[in-house]
């Protein structure tokens, strides 16, 4: 594995993005790489005005897209997810609750935020649990031993909701400044000098050593 200087990679993502779920193994490897820090930046792509009901047309589209992701990346999308999440007649596609739950982790045990994100992704796409429900998200956090974050999710404070809005606004401003389109994206480089650039999502599904080299050269 090539060596890298100390670096921070900012992960621009949405917790309900299937392609972001597909990038989970690479993000875990980044987290385990000495000298590399992963900063999560939820963009709110599927929250607020980006949220929508999961009607039959959207469900069919989502499942077809998920199958394509699975074929290209090997990440599993289970039948339980299809039946218990996508097929729910009153379901919503809304990443606002998961973004709030991640922000609760960021405020209480920030070093475990990526772990929490990946637990939410497994709960949804493998276990077939509805991660648009705060009760489900709090239960997942409790299983991880993140009890302070779970308590915040069960009874969100005004301060937590304000922090969510601030994080999303900051991530969107970052995307605009970098000319980034869509998620997932990695922002790499030195924020202090302004020498930053975006590595597009495709870089997250290829050779990890090559990706590390790109980070090192940013």
TrEMBL record:
It comes from the Bacteria. InterPro entries: DSBA-like_thioredoxin_dom, Thioredoxin-like_sf. SUPFAM superfamilies: Thioredoxin-like (SSF52833). GO terms for molecular function: oxidoreductase activity. This is DSBA-like thioredoxin domain-containing protein. Residues 8-200 form the DSBA-like thioredoxin domain. It holds the Pfam family DSBA.
